[in-house]
Amino acid sequence: MKDLGGASRNLRGLDRKFMEPIWIDWTKRLQALAQTGLTYAESPYDVERYEEVRHIAAEIAANRSDAALPQVLDLFSHDTGYTTPKVDVRGVIFHNDALLLVRERSDGRWTLPGGWADVGEAPSECVVREVFEESGFQVRVKKLLAVYDRSKHPHEPPFPFHVYKLFFWCEIFGGEATRSNETDEVGFFTRDVIPPLSLTRVTPEQIDRVFAHHQHPEWPTDFD
Fold first, then answer.
1. Confidence at 8, pLDDT banded by 50, 70, 90
2. Does domain 86-223 have CATH number 3.40.50.2300?
3. How far apart are CA 189 and CA 199, in angstroms?
4. Helix (H) or strand (E) holding 55
5. Whole-model pTM?
6. How many helices (H) does the chain have, and how many strands (E)?
7. What gap in Å lies between CA 57 and CA 80, rounded to an integer?
8. Tell me, what's the pLDDT at 18?
């Protein structure tokens, strides 16, 4: 991505070519409307209407993907309560200008260590735990580098829920490279030798941006 001279980057409107297909947006909004409505609905009539909205959202998703309708309905029905975005945290760790990446067993591709934020932990606590579990390194958080809306970046494949991705700049103070039940390799890579990336978790543009932040630690946090 372009160097914006260190200015805090609001990506709204800048990366429209990366936006998800419109049917993904329709599905997410309908599912969110249904889930929130079912949370507060009191009459059987309202419950029936919101369940129908959920069914329509699932039909759209199933029709445009390889998933079966019952599978999509089951996925949607497991989320309860008022609908809010899910949170994914990623650790950005450099050593001698090389970036720490881990290889995911699930797809054989590389990513920044991280995962879903857990209830009861602060985002910084989550990323420290995830980095240790996936790489074996003990880290402390120095700075929030970026807050990205997953749907505005070229992640593949599309995800049925709205996701915010938090990138934290961390530094190592202990531990050693260790494989885990989720990752089968740990390594440090310079910008010119980045391995194939797990695009559902991180994109080349995001990797470029964290390298730029490494060169300009005074830059403010990116967002969107």
1. very low
2. no
3. 17
4. helix 44-63
5. 0.76
6. 5, 8
7. 16
8. 53
Beta bridge partners of 183: 104
SS3 at position 122:
coil
Could you give the C-alpha distances from 145 to 75, 83, 127, in angstroms and in order?
32, 26, 13
Contacts of residue 45, defined as CB under 8 A and 6 or more positions apart, other chains included, come to none
Domains of the chain: which residue ranges?
Answer: 21-77, 86-223
pLDDT tens digits, one per residue of 171-198: 999 999 999 999 999 999 999 999 999 9
| Of 149, 157, 130, the residue nearest 24 (C-alpha) | 157
Rounded to an integer, what distance in angstroms lies between the CA atom of residue 24 and that of residue 61? Answer: 7
Beta-carbon neighbour count of residue 68 at 10 Å?
Answer: 11
For the chain, the C-alpha Rg in angstroms (whole number) is 19
Q: In the chain, what is the straight-line distance between the N-terminal and C-terminal CA atoms, in Å?
A: 14
Model confidence at 52: pLDDT above 60: yes
The more confidently predicted of residues 21 and 88 is 88
pLDDT at 156 over 80: yes
**Cis, bond preceding 157 (omega within 30 deg of 0):** yes
> Is the model's pLDDT at 142 over the cut of 90?
yes
Element at 116 (helix H, strand E):
strand 114-116
Please give the Cα distance from 110 to 177 (Å, whole number). Answer: 15
